[in-house]
Amino acid sequence: MSLHQAREMEGVLLVDKPQGLTSHDVVYHLRRKLHLKKIGHAGTLDPMATGVLVMLIGKATRISQFLMSVDKAYEGEATLGIVTDSQDAEGEVMETRPVPELTAAGVREVMKTFLGDQYQTPPMHSAIKVGGVPLYKMARKGEEVEREPRFIRVTEFKLLSFAPPKLTFGLHCTKGTYVRTIAHDLGQKLGCGAHLSALRRTASGRFTIAHCLPLDQIEALALPDIEKRLIPVYEAAPRVAL
Fold first, then answer.
1. What is the per-residue pLDDT across 157-201, written as a single tens digit (0 to 9) for each?
2. Which residue has the higher pLDDT, 61 or 8?
3. Which terminus of the chain is more solvent-facing, meaning fewer CB atoms within 10 Å of its CB: N or C?
4. Which residue in the list 16, 46, 88, 185 is annotated as catalytic?
5. From the candidate CATH numbers 2.140.10.30, 3.30.2350.10, 3.40.50.1360, 3.30.1490.110, the one assigned to the domain spanning 72-203
6. 149-177 in b/e burial notation, b at 16+ Cβ within 10 A?
7. Comparing C-alpha atoms, which of 53, 18, 12, 22 is closest to residue 217?
8. Is the pLDDT of residue 89 over 80?
9. Which parts of 2-98 are beta strand (E)?
10. In CATH, what is the architecture of 3-69+206-236?
């Protein structure tokens, strides 16, 4: 495939994001591989997280808002008894507390309280801007400002395994939900604090991890083989009732 043809690539590419890279790092890797600047993504994953990252290639960037608005599914791990400033394993430990005698049944009952419509206050360690400044920049300076709560909906929050101080969970929620905040809040409700210690996005709308290919495998493919994996825009965009 010629460089000119590569520039005309268009469609949705489903990537299994590796741990340690930002979503923008994945954009950079694909720009270099495809010799194409017009590449975006539909829904950020933190560097710590892995899993479904919907990449928009070429003119497919125009359907970004449609693909970002879909529900997401995750599998995650929370570590009880340790609270961090970022609410995940990448932050500084702020507090350690003993984990009480908890049962799986008891944890499940508390998890039920997270189901349904609610407002969630975004963490300080986030890219949301207040007065044009990202919150994480303020957080690094030790500042804390009032954040506007966001409407979210949790349709599933189930316990997958429980071996204190670790528990794993499955979560199905609307866009913009901070999973690390849910892990943090769960810890507070359980009386010992917690942080998110692992996270994998298993689905974004109808795209699941089974549809994805790891980034290193994509980079090893020839350009025509990558093009074969592209989902056309008309197939990828959710059907909107007119």
1. 999 999 999 999 999 999 999 999 999 999 999 999 999 999 999
2. 61
3. C
4. 46
5. 3.30.2350.10
6. ebebebeebeeeebebbebbbebbbbbeb
7. 18
8. yes
9. 11-17, 39-41, 50-57, 72-80, 82-84, 93-96
10. 2-Layer Sandwich (3.30)
Q: What is the pLDDT of residue 239?
A: 60
- Selection from 180, 192, 209 nearest residue 52 by Cα: 209
pLDDT of 240 > 70? The answer is: no
Over the stretch 14-53, which tens digit does the pLDDT of each residue have? Answer: 999 999 999 999 999 999 999 999 999 998 999 999 999 9
Q: How far apart are CA 236 and CA 219, in angstroms?
A: 22
Where in the chain do CATH 3.30.2350.10 domains reside? 3-69+206-236, 72-203
Distance CA 233, CA 218 (A): 20
Active site residue 216: no
Phi, psi (deg, nearest 5) at residue 16: -90, 100
